[in-house]
Predict the 3D structure of the following.
Amino acid sequence: MKICAIILSAGKSNRFNSDKPKFMHEISGQQIINYNINAVKKIKKINKLFIITSSQNKKYFENIEPNIFIQNPLDGTGGALKQFAKVNKNFDYYLVLLADTPIFEYKILQNFLNKSISQKNDVSVISQFIDNPEGYGRIVIEKNSFYQIIEDKDCNAIQKKINLVNTGIFLISKTAISNIDLIKRNINKKEFYLTDLVSISKQKNMRTFAYINKETEIRGVNTISELNELETLSQIHIKKRIMNAGAIIHSPETVYIEENAKIEKGVIIEPNVVIKKNVSIKNGTTIRSFSYLEDAKIGSNCIIGPFARLRPGTTLEGDNRIGNFVEIKKSKLSKGVKANHLTYIGDTNVGKNTNIGAGTITCNYDGKNKLSCKIGNNSFIGSNTSIVAPVEIGANSYIAAGSVITKNIPKKSFSISRAKQKIYKNRVVK
Amino acid sequence: MKICAIILSAGKSNRFNSDKPKFMHEISGQQIINYNINAVKKIKKINKLFIITSSQNKKYFENIEPNIFIQNPLDGTGGALKQFAKVNKNFDYYLVLLADTPIFEYKILQNFLNKSISQKNDVSVISQFIDNPEGYGRIVIEKNSFYQIIEDKDCNAIQKKINLVNTGIFLISKTAISNIDLIKRNINKKEFYLTDLVSISKQKNMRTFAYINKETEIRGVNTISELNELETLSQIHIKKRIMNAGAIIHSPETVYIEENAKIEKGVIIEPNVVIKKNVSIKNGTTIRSFSYLEDAKIGSNCIIGPFARLRPGTTLEGDNRIGNFVEIKKSKLSKGVKANHLTYIGDTNVGKNTNIGAGTITCNYDGKNKLSCKIGNNSFIGSNTSIVAPVEIGANSYIAAGSVITKNIPKKSFSISRAKQKIYKNRVVK
Amino acid sequence: MKICAIILSAGKSNRFNSDKPKFMHEISGQQIINYNINAVKKIKKINKLFIITSSQNKKYFENIEPNIFIQNPLDGTGGALKQFAKVNKNFDYYLVLLADTPIFEYKILQNFLNKSISQKNDVSVISQFIDNPEGYGRIVIEKNSFYQIIEDKDCNAIQKKINLVNTGIFLISKTAISNIDLIKRNINKKEFYLTDLVSISKQKNMRTFAYINKETEIRGVNTISELNELETLSQIHIKKRIMNAGAIIHSPETVYIEENAKIEKGVIIEPNVVIKKNVSIKNGTTIRSFSYLEDAKIGSNCIIGPFARLRPGTTLEGDNRIGNFVEIKKSKLSKGVKANHLTYIGDTNVGKNTNIGAGTITCNYDGKNKLSCKIGNNSFIGSNTSIVAPVEIGANSYIAAGSVITKNIPKKSFSISRAKQKIYKNRVVK
């Protein structure tokens, strides 16, 4: 069986006040369009993915997906399928998704496909119950059968009250797609509506099916405010997943976690934490408030923050303590390393159990290049030390507070760079 | 046509547990009383603004508004107007506002005035529908006409269910104000109620009008909890305005933005950001989480934060990068200047494209005076540098990490102040 | 009269995805079990407190409470009371609490006891109205009398609609407890249900009573999501208490305050603040955003933050200014001390009106021991100073910026440790 997925992205973002199309904006750290691309990729049944777009929007897909189909003219969702099906006839099923309507859970799609196909339906749509259906196309069920989709403005008083609505996501069989040319141009909008395929198929005695989604609500984005509402739904979904896995999040509504975070059971997250892309946190670790983590691997039994900033390329092996106002970037801290106060560590490899004093700064940039440092096991870096890269500090060494380190230090050495303290008595009168 | 606005502020704040009156507290960074003062000032039609207050509250208006009218005795809202109108007869309309009921959108007032005056109404009130009307004066409409305002405790069972309520904001014509002395003292409270003017005017066949507000709900403040509820409404209003203008705010409920922020289209604000008074942000700039901005001008295409603190008097010209744990005060950073880590810049002017290393501190206070620094274009300030003001650092100069700079540095110079690093081998045994 | 309180904690936490039992988790900084232990301790009427637990859970109570009673076998809430009453017959009343159902306000318990005892009731239960009663045991009132508790699954259609529900908290008289053995094993679960004692007592013409809680809702915890919901209730309760006392909290939903904070009237708390255990804040102090306070005493008229980190053992005497990116630990700052930027003060005593410059670090750890410092009154610590403990700095002294201080400084002295600044002209070409 051959199934293709199609993402419709030719529409204009007229109501979305931005210079780039709405599907390029991010929700919980992922571009809207990518939710559907990734969902499709997770479903093995689907053989091929196409993006239908306009010549104007084409540029946004250059680095994303090779199978681009240009819709021309821009004659609506029905028009898109007409143009596409004319040259892509060899699929058994066509899954139609919308670029501005991200699916956060691929399993919704998978269940929809499985159920529709096993029941041999010809036109299936994902529908859902919502509290306020105003503005949505309604799912009309007659004699226990999915009969048609009526746009909000065409609803009579009784239909207005239907709160089972169309999400715009369709699965269309080869047989049904052969009727695509029967869709007529809408009188007002001069476009072809894919929703009309339901009643057309029904008239031809084909099987139609309204799958009901009961997971996270599926919504499209038209304005920046709607982007926020959708992100709120996405955040609830992400944090629920993490809490179900056994992590504890305090005041979750103040915590922001991007979509692909891997957070194990036993992790505790305090209020007011931001976790961006590609973060993994192992069990027993606590992330304290006002921490901002990004593209970082955090081992077990660490205490991170408050006020910790882990930047891309940070690896903490475990049992680490990253304290207040400490920033780490492209560095590996081995087991037991502590950096508790006002520190910047960049491009540095730190050995086991080394203690980094307050105010330590790795000077990893000379104005032209980024340079790296290496610090051995069991060393003690005194407070307010500047470590001027490139430099190597041996294991079991000790640096006195306030030093500027420019030369390598052999293991078991004591190093100091400090001017003598002078005291002038009775010189200050206050 | 002569119109005056009157803000009633003679009341006591008995239920508000604070040493200063409730109208002096802030909502979204502005004192409650100032919302109405500013709204009135924006309406050109209004010729004069009066504050009616008590001799006790008078002191709070010394720096705010010159037209003060002292109410004595304190005999209610009706009493205030009686006393005032006796000596201020020459206005065509009297707009009556309440000190504890801030109007966030002056356009509500403007529309109210325009509609009331064009319809030649004599007593107009702003009303609004609310879900739970308990405690509010109800707007009684009889025969399609605004008939009277009934206090909650005087309502019968049917009137209790009316959810169109009085906000306390009135517009009264010259004709209607001439009847002000017909208001009788309320039997229980021994005060005169301005609301009684509605039924009095109705009996005299004057035109009464209940304008219905459909914008942000208008509410008074009686307790600290109500102050918070009103601030929540104000925050929603502010962020909606900013998002409609084309800025994107992630997790907006964790972001706090004060009332007069100017944020352009294309700006992105991450979760957990605080933007206080007098901040402007130009397009293309991202404000990352845990940033606290106050009285600062931020140019285009900057990345601010996370953990950035911009204090009053900061100007960033554009293309700036202000990073983690960096504080800037009364300083101008020209285009392309970067200060990425653990830095304090105060009273300093920095030239184009200069790079400020991690841990740099401008020592701008000598215990008595604040002193200033100047840093030229294209310079490189090494990490952990102390710049002791007053000092000038020329363009294209380079300071070695860990230096203390006390003397001026000519352009294209290299400067260093550093003790020699000594190494004592085999001195540390762990 | 002899009253004992019993906390049932023998149950398993099957649905709570954690390695430790749910009652050991924290809500607003206090372990769930401790809410009930502390509430009981505040009620003088209660003579003795017992924890009924399993041999498996026993270890969790080793440091908490000496009166442990092991339930064996684990045969339900009724079984627990059967086993317990057999050997503890000499109480007039038995108050039964649940380990996973914390009471945030001890006054609810106190009122419940007072009312039940004064009315001479034999079996009393705390009940409450809730919007969605699904899953809860319903309180069945017949002929104006509390008749029985019916489990959700045993309810008929009419009973399903009852929204007065059982919280699981009982007060049982000596007379009623003598009938405890009449409770029969539940057919499905094979356990004894304490709720059955209501109908048994009713049949014996004893007095039963359903006390209705109208304060903060009482809820049990079964899942991590429910832990969060309960913490949300707890946070609302805590912040309401603080606002009623006259403190102002901006955007309270972004502020997290643990249970035992003492915050006076006149304190202002900005958005995004975290206040952990054992914090007291006196009047006139403002806590600015992104501050994290823990086990700290803060005097009057301080400005703390933004970005302040007060760690355990901090005392601020008053009129202090703790600024951006400043961390204080186990230190006392006398009146008027200021530390405004990028500073770490640990194990240090600072005298009145001393100014701590930006970037100052007390080097209080030598790799083995924590050492302490003393700084006198009216001193000036220049920026970027490292103070290497142990050291004493006399009153009215002055330290030049960038110094490393290792020797004591007498009062009225000027001290400096700094390498000479060298300048090499025309050495940098950019």
